Amino acid sequence: MGEAMRFSARTNWNTEENALARAHRLRMEAGLPVADLTASNPTRCGFRYDAESLAALASPETLDYDPQPRGSLRGREAVCAYYAELGVKVAPEQIILTTSTSEAYSYLFRLLCDAGDEILVPQPGYPLFDFLAALDDVRLKNAPLVYDHGWQIDPEGIRRAITPRTRAMVLVHPNNPTGHFTKAWEKKELAALCREFDLALVVDEVFLDYRFAGSEAVTSFAAGLGGVPVFVVSGLSKIAGLPQMKAAWIAVTGTEKAAALDRLEVIGDTFLPMNAPVQCALPTWLAGRGAIQAQIRRRVARNLAELDRQFAGAPAVSRLKAEGGWYAVLRIPATERDERTVLELLERGVWVHPGYFFGMPESGWLVVSLLGEEQEFQQGVRRLVDYLAKSGVTRDAVIDQDPL
Ligand SMILES: Cc1ncc(COP(=O)(O)O)c(C=O)c1O
After folding, report:
1. What is the pTM of this model?
2. CATH architecture assigned to 51-287
3. What distances in angstroms separate CA 194 from CA 123, 152, 200, one per listed residue?
């Protein structure tokens, strides 16, 4: 008889439940209260959705199968209308529809990289990159962000991370979870690096529309970056608060866009992932995004204000500066590993992300989502502040620590 079945090395994950997930599951199963400060699913945060926007799904035209490798023209035109409203001119020929930004990343990794090639990703950053890259045999290298009166890129750090195998750099604009936008001086530095090393830029703009009041106006990278190959990824999951609809896109700019689009078209043709009803409804959902965005912006602003109000009187925690997105990064005294802190907080009925989940050091960082229902959020923050106050550390201990 043969030996045990062999699996690919790329799927050699440790799939055992980790200590945090286990503790959370047990607490939920026991029916004990948990104020969830990680809630990031907009469909479960008490927002009002317009059920009438589902009517387009049932249009008779969805009975026709019209396989379009780049996605339906109407769907792509709707994406262009979105950019036009942001003041950016993009043609439908520059758009490829996908079922998620994750799928868009996968298309781009396959377009740009051979097995073993490298892509730079911001750190702290979105944890899914590790899995997306591994599945496409791409190696990730971290491009550390620095915090100095706000988050920013470190051009010299990026330069040091580039090797002959580097093909692209990912930017998240605004970044998750740090909430900072890429500034004009950073765009200039990035464009110069991309030109010098022949790199493409993959820019994730899923949170673009969630700028905090009072922060500087921003533009989409879909406007282009002086001919540098730029691939903007975005989609309905955040822009229209509809992650379940599985609709996203890539917008391609730069001098080599025609060749890139031809190849992306073949990738699209291979999978033809878009379904007819969703493409048919895409224009309606995008056009209706204002109503859900207004609710989300209001929720995020109120929760952020509540966080700051409670932290103003709290000795042991501070919030880092952010300009947009749905998250806040918290600095706490690094007196023990954050996994321990998160477990102890869970025992007190509040669930937060440890910073290391987003690539931060193991001690001294927590991340909270600002999307959850206000009462629950308020209660969760109160428990967090009480816990930190009781652990007997002072604000001086927080401020004395070096940033990242
Ligand atoms: C930076 C970033 N990109 C993409 C996504 C997910 O997008 P999608 O649902 O289109 O895969 C998320 C979700 O949290 C995100 O934080």
Report:
1. 0.95
2. 3-Layer(aba) Sandwich (3.40)
3. 19, 17, 6
